[in-house]
């Protein structure tokens, strides 16, 4: 039996506030999980028809760290995130959050916040109405809607319909919905896509703060410069296979920069 | 309960649903009033109830929109983002999601049917001198509510398979308003009287003009069976497919 109160070896994540894990967790008794929530992708394979989109992917995203998921368009980043979130099913393999599949999380809105493409909202609803139903689904108090609107800078536009939002405003609305439950884990697909420079700087600081408070952040991106300034760990995938993973400095290695490493690993500019 | 509250909030914040509610309240009552002033229309035991059968359009729109709104792509620049991803990350259990959706649609449509029946039958009572509506018609009003709810769930079940409202909306609305496919088929085979839209009318109509005369309970059971099968296929597709 593992010794109690021992943290998994998470490097920077060590030393964050401990708390006991809620019911429904598969963490062995005696272990105290970190506030963050561990994301474990294990041997995930996904086939669509005869095409293999993901081939035996395994990686982890740890509490207290920002993990970047890099790869060219069509490499399988979004598919992996969708499997992690239970939206798509893997042909084989497992994707777990603190040892539990997403669909079996006791309180998903407080455990995981996710932003995939766009806003994830219906065009005919107002931003506020969108957040209100997500809050209702998660059992989050109504007052929290105003808090997250303020947080992402949408308070003044909350009564406009989503159809009138710019791409960047839609992204902010998606992030607001993900933050309603103040979740332990953030999963973001291309979070800086569509944001203006101010928004990019804001989200960089914001994600660093989340990690510093012991939470888990997993983001996919193809903005390499942005990644170098924000993340701790890097997972590079190409054509459904992992080609490199480790801390940022490990993956950069002798390549000098993440950009050089990326092109060397993914076979250069195709 | 959390999931149900979310689904009710979704329905009440969609403009399409409010348009459907307005149609459901105005259309049957309006047709009743128009018919009453038309000297050629002959009042019968079904006056008011036939008009309420037309109002089922509102129920169908709500059933379709409740599902199709989840799959409406946001726009090209957002990479085809759809609400269903938000829905299933907030309520990951697909069976719980569908149950909440079903309850929200059935509750909303049932309430709408009762209010619309009250308006339309009051209008019938006031405008048709030869027809009087009384408490004895209460079972028929419940029949209307059941017919509207069944129709909404049937529409929702089909939309779960198509994931788009265009086909189910156009087919179902044309079937009611322009030409009844089921009714045309009765000219070919008597079995068409057991199609859901025709069998279900026995829930509230009393002057049956077809050769197949079902009791209200039998009519309700036949339509309910259709709903169970089609919504079941839709649910099975929804649970198995990638969102």
From TrEMBL, chain B:
Keyword line:
Membrane, Transmembrane, Transmembrane helix
Q: Does the keyword Membrane apply?
A: yes
Name of the protein in its database record = ABC transporter permease
Biological classification of the source:
Bacteria, Bacillati, Actinomycetota, Actinomycetes, Propionibacteriales
TM ranges: 12-32, 52-73, 98-121, 141-162, 169-195, 215-239
The organism's superkingdom is given as Bacteria
